[in-house]
Amino acid sequence: MRAVTFNPNHDTFQLVEIERPSAGEGDVLIKVDACGLNPVDAKIALWKSMAPSMDANWVAGLDVSGHIVELGAGVSQWRIGDRVLCHGNMFRPCGGFAEYSVQAADTLVKHPNVAADVAAATPCAGWTAWRALFDKLRIEEHDAILITGGSGGVGSFAVQIAAEVGLSTIIASCSAANVEFVRSLGATEVVDYHSESVTERVLQITHQMGVPIALDTVGPDNDIAAANALGFEGQLVELVDTVRPLSYHEAFMKGLSFHQLSLGAGHRNGDAAKAQLVASGTAFSLWLERGRLRVPQLQSIDIESVPQAMEQMLQQRTVGKIVMSLEDGA
Question: pLDDT tens digit string along 211-242?
């Protein structure tokens, strides 16, 4: 089969022909229709040491849309022909940048009634936004939020969710080039982080009270800006780095709370964690299917273009979503 593999010896992606995998116990074999490209896939060189079995035939690609063509032993909840969607396990070798992918049956979600490339654009970014806002921050209990990186994958979905829930104040940061794009998603205030202090602007908007909740999707010191923009007993979800309360202004005196979130951790922490992963995917997909959320600036590419797209993703921040499509012979 055709597959885009990552060679850990040279840190390169390449399109090759490799043997089609088979479904092991508890797994299914999926005929891939589409697979989303995500920064975690592009940055594999940074975490490859955590996968000691990685070799030159390692296929990345976490967000897989397709249909089941083979059932492994013990799989009874799915049938051959079922359309499914998943956020795969980054430490398994048979990902979605290929014609076929092996995935754990108990982490699959029923495919929403949308096109394959649209569905494949959502798990990593969309399900993360869903878990951060609903499971961690309980967004429906608040009226204001700060989202750093509003034009990115997670940020663009988070802004939409906040708008759909009905928050009166949705503050997002991005570069000047993306201000109007982020406004179109539902942000009520957009801060150009190149020309303004995010913290000072948030405090100005909120009359020095700060926001009750914040989501940092960017990392490197954006957690400090987000935490310092919180009001009394505010809460922050950090997606990129480990939180560091001692670096935040009056974190103890303001009674701030902090959350970590790694969507992929759902694969590594038992059945309850897998169930949480599936629950978030199911809930997000329902909103997507009903038109309550959209995939902004979706770009579909063929499998031949994936290696170059991975390299480009390392060099710049991507606006919107890129998806590899294999439908109609792509």
Answer: 999 999 998 999 999 999 999 999 999 999 99
- Phi/psi for 83 (5° steps) reads -85, 130
CA distance 141 to 147: 16
The C-alpha atoms of residue 57 and residue 245 are separated, in whole angstroms, by 41
Q: Angle at the Cα of 210 (from 209 to 216), degrees rounded to 5?
A: 175
Question: φ, ψ for residue 33 (rounded to 5)?
Answer: -95, -35
Instruction: Note the pLDDT tens digit of each residue in 171-214.
Output: 999 999 999 999 999 999 999 999 999 999 999 999 999 999 99
Q: Which residues contact 134 (CB under 8 A, 6 or more apart)?
A: 140, 280, 283
Taking every pair of C-alpha atoms in the chain, what is the biggest distance, in angstroms? 61
Which is it for the CA torsion 260, 290, 101, 328, positive or negative? Answer: negative
